[in-house]
Amino acid sequence: MTKSELLFDQARKVIPGGVNSPVRAFRAVGGTPIFFERAEGAYLFDADDKRYVDYVQSWGPMVLGHAHPDVIDAVVEAAEQGLSFGAPTESETLLAEELCRVWPNMDLVRFVNSGTEATMSAIRLARGFTGRDKIVKFEGCYHGHSDSLLVKAGSGALTMGVPSSPGVPAALADHTITLTYNDADAVRQCFAEIGNEIACIIVEPVAGNMNCVPPVPGFLETLREVCDESGALLIIDEVMTGFRISLTGAQGHYGVRADLTTLGKVIGGGMPVGAFGGRRDVMEYIAPLGPVYQAGTLSGNPVAMAAGLTTLELVQEPDFYELLNEKTEALVDGILAAAKEAGIPMTANRVGSMFGFFFTDAESVTNYQQVMACDTERFNTFFHGMLEEGVYLAPASYEAGFMSVAHSKDDIDYTISAARRVFDRLKASA
Ligand SMILES: Cc1ncc(COP(=O)(O)O)c(C=O)c1O
Ligand SMILES: N[C@H](C=O)CCC(=O)O
Fold first, then answer.
1. Ligand 1 atom 8, closest CA
2. Active-site residue 375, yes or no?
3. CB 230 within 8 A of CB 191
4. Where in the cell is it found (predicted)?
5. Model-level pTM greater than 0.80?
6. What is the 282 CA–ligand 1 centroid distance (Å)?
7. Partners of 292 in beta bridges
8. Is 300 in contact with 111 (CB distance < 8 Å)?
9. Where are the alpha helices (DSSP H) in 210-319?
């Protein structure tokens, strides 16, 4: 047995399914999860000290690569001053100032500990501000695991085959309207019927929890329009895309403005951080200024703030995103070319440094139904082949992939050559 297998056996005795988040369990792809011991730059090292080129990047945060020395120094320095005070610290204000300076339309921002808390709080705020209960989300989009949002959700919920979870009260789920991603007509129709009952739309501006599905032209703009017409708020969930696809996330990339933005992942540089922020009049509705309650013992934690501040400083170095995007383009183009050479039908989506491959004859994939129609078995064989070659992809075909600036040309070339070998084996066994 490998050390990972032994550790998994040990974990299963005391942790449900041996994991603390379902997507880690390899249920979608089969086999047992790899247990990692350390990480550096583009690489993960497992418990047997095998090295992997990593395209999961802790599900997105590690845009600088793992254990960047400046981030580690900042974390150590902050930790030496005390781990948590449960009281205000300057570092919270500094990170908030940075977010409000860089981000479009962010007048005020509140820190929390995860993306789930950020979206859950933003939804409560939208309901409190508008005095309405209904919310609109899109099938296959994942916004964390709060009750209102775990309806027809993506990510780990898809791998379990239960995109709507037991335990969510029907009465609450009834307030969540789920529409097809990229279907602007369905959005218009819904708002024409009950627009004045809807508190908010929440959307992944690039869906990254049903593989990687970008918005079609006009989709995000339609969401803005119907919200303006109906008085609903537009929540753009940039937990994954924020500081990932560009410095100003999807809103900068596509030129669409949110009333509230949710952030996470990159803004914590690998530490547990989330945030929600936006229009002053809406954010002033949050306690202690306003009546909508929201709180957190560890929110704005000084060690996490230090990691976030240093990360945001580094992503603003000249040409950071150009370099990151070029690397991602080289990887995606190389793998697509290798699939074509091997005669394996495949397409890909990419926005900035987020990407996804689809085993399909279709020319493009733009919604949940198309994602679900792809050849999952072939993906799973591809996944295990790449794992053997020392390349770590997300262990499910419903997750986006991520690049970091630490990935070298050699890492990318190696990954493409590994894919070529795996495709050849796939072809031989077909
Ligand atoms: C778009 C999006 N929103 C929210 C979340 C929830 O974040 P977390 O896992 O930090 O709770 C995630 C990821 O899990 C996400 O990708
Ligand atoms: N797809 C999820 C986040 O983006 C994966 C993270 C998790 O749920 O563990």
1. 115
2. no
3. yes
4. Cytoplasm
5. yes
6. 22
7. 286
8. yes
9. 219-230, 249-254, 280-283, 302-315
Verify whether residue 265 is a known catalytic residue.
yes
Strands 260-263 and 391-392: unpaired
Q: Which pLDDT tens digit goes with each residue over 280-326?
A: 999 999 999 999 999 999 999 999 999 999 999 999 999 999 999 99
Q: Which of 43, 52, 55, 142 is catalytic?
A: 142
Of all ligands present, the nearest one to the C-alpha of 22 is 2
Name the amino acid, one letter, at 381.
T
The structure tokens listed for 73 are 């120094």
Paired tokens of 277: 């922020």
Q: What is the pLDDT of residue 195?
A: 97
Output the CA 30–ligand 2 centroid distance in Å.
18
Let me know if 50 is a catalytic residue. no
User: What is the percent of the chain with per-residue pLDDT over 90, rounded to a whole number?
Assistant: 92
CA of 8 to the centre of ligand 2 (A): 19
| Bridge partner residues of 200 (DSSP) | 135, 233
Residue of minimum CA distance from atom 6 in ligand 2: 59
